[in-house]
Design brief:
43 residues, mainly alpha, rod-shaped, YqzM, YqzM family protein
Length: 43
């Protein structure tokens, strides 16, 4: 077992970090899409 596995900096579960990353990126693309739709509807 290597030394980094004994004392990880982050005690969070990987699945929680994965869900957070997916959620934030998904929301970001939804916001960009909504801005694009709004601009195209205005024209």
């Amino acid at each position: 077992m290597n030394e980094f596995e004994k004392d990880p900096q982050s005690k969070n579960l990987d699945i929680a970090d994965s869900i957070n990353g997916f959620t934030f990126s998904f929301l970001f693309f939804i916001i960009i899409f909504a801005i694009g739709v709004t601009i195209s509807v205005m024209h």
